Request: fold
Amino acid sequence: MSRKTDPRNETIDCAPSKPAAPVKEIAFEKQRGISQVEVRTGFAQVHVSKLSGDIHSQRLNVLKAVREAAVSVDFLKLTPSGLSFVISENNSSDIEKALGPLNYHCTIRKDRCVVLIHAVNMRDEEGLTAQVVQKAIASGAIVDHISDMHDRMLIVADKKFTSTLQELFQEETHGR
Amino acid sequence: MAVKPRIKVMKFGGTSVATHEARVQSALKVISAKEQGFAPVVVVSAIGRKGAPYATDTLINMLRDIDPTVEPDLRELDLLVACGEILSSVIFAHTLKTLGHPAMAFRGGQAGIRTDGVYGNARVVGINPVSLFKACEKGAIPVVCGFQGVYVAGDGAPGGELTTLGRGGSDTTASAVGAAMQADAVEIFTDVDGVKTADPDSVPNAPTLRKVTYDEVAEIAHLGAKVVHPRAAEIAMNFDIPLWVKSTFTDDEGTEIVRRDRFPGRRVTGVTHTGKLVYLQFDLKEASEEHRRVLETRIFETMAHYGFNLFMMNLSPSGTGFAVPRTQFAALAGILDSLVVPVDGQMFLLQIGSNPSKDVENQLRLLAPTGNVKSIVAELTEGCTMVSLVGHEYMQQPGVFFEVLTTLHDAQIPVLQTTDSDFSLSVLVPESESNRTVRLLHEQFRLADIV
Reply:
């Protein structure tokens, strides 16, 4: 095979012709930072406290009773003397009935909301999660819980702070 | 009218281009696609992983080694690290050529990839793939540098500025090129068969998932297992481009990443674990509500300012807690330990760890004459890790927490804290129990039977 025809030695000119072919550019990635604020309402926070002795087993007793009541639990946090979690407010009486026989110290705070702060790939934006928490706390809202996902943070707070939090983060959105 | 070629974008990661043998193996996959009638477009990462001579970290260290106290300029750093992919693309293109297939290497800018102007973490704003199409039309295989693009400033500076895309950059390049060229498929080739139900180091026979949704794969990546970057998955989903994760070194069919509406169904998808974490729990019981608000604000403001990534955040009546990667802990302790926060004439002194450091003792001595200093102690739990159950429409079912905590309680694995979201449920456990926790949850939720 002659050197000239060997495909291994071909040179290809792929520079754009002039003028460049009209290929439309497309926007690909979402802008960094907060893109959307969403609110979910109708939640209650359950706090079981003052457990003593084998706290781990007692926490499991609580969760077992909740499961038997067929109630879904979110935002579970272990506290030094018990646990807390969030339920649908509609299930408050089911929880009261389920936990009553256990005789644990239990409080149910109704009128909780979940404010969702959407921001794509949050972990790649250094300090963004801390910034959201800082702003939520500094706003004066009493924040019960914080959780995060790949594209959003979830803030549980008293319903009376809904508009404060919503307006605060709405101002931060790049689409405002 | 010319028929649009059937484009297949094939991205090869560091291990797939690390050695001549690996590159030939990868090149044969490309040639096979071409023989099947596709017009392959290759995207490559830098050669090898951390420690390899031309890997991104090695290149960065060439600057850091000059004087570790002088931070490299981000613009210069981007110019330097982009060399890894340029080298890789030229070598890969030449490998294809030696196998008898014309190929041509393209820098990000030459491939038409435009980004915003954030050095080190740029986002793709547009792609004009005219040169790539032209190469395909001429029968050549374009080999595009992953991880890089070009920023053209508003003043029309000639040539533009080279930028890099940050974490997951090459995956993102592959998806974006696929979207711009309306590819039939984007395939991410790596050294595993696809997205697995658990890290094979923890569960050696963890099966490969055949289909996962974008949300599942993004959450899996968010919680520690980075097989494909969420940015890449997001672009593929938004433009409805089929995205696959496959192995360079086997013929396994791999994992297809699909839109949520194409995979309705409830299931546990997998168990992930993060690297080593340190958990800090600030005791704020003694602070009044207003003082507590100021303290928490200051702590989180400082974390945000220095760009720390926080995990397992926990606000409870007794205090505030969060975990940070162990690699960031020394820097965090250096900033927060002995920090004085004045509130209404009261001085709060932050102490990281139950034993006061010399800095804390010095501050206490200096502030003692004021007579109103209170220490806020952050108890440390070192050597822990976060194990997460990821699922699709599963976490909201009653009893999931009970099942997880009972499984771990029965195995005498202490759970230090929990957190959850729509797609995941995580437990903080001692690092020494990491693999056992993953195995137990994998077994409890019958993930071996998922495929």
Observations:
- Residues 18-26 of chain A have pLDDT under 50 and may be disordered.
- The longest strand of chain A covers residues 36-49.
- The radius of gyration of chain A is 26 Å.
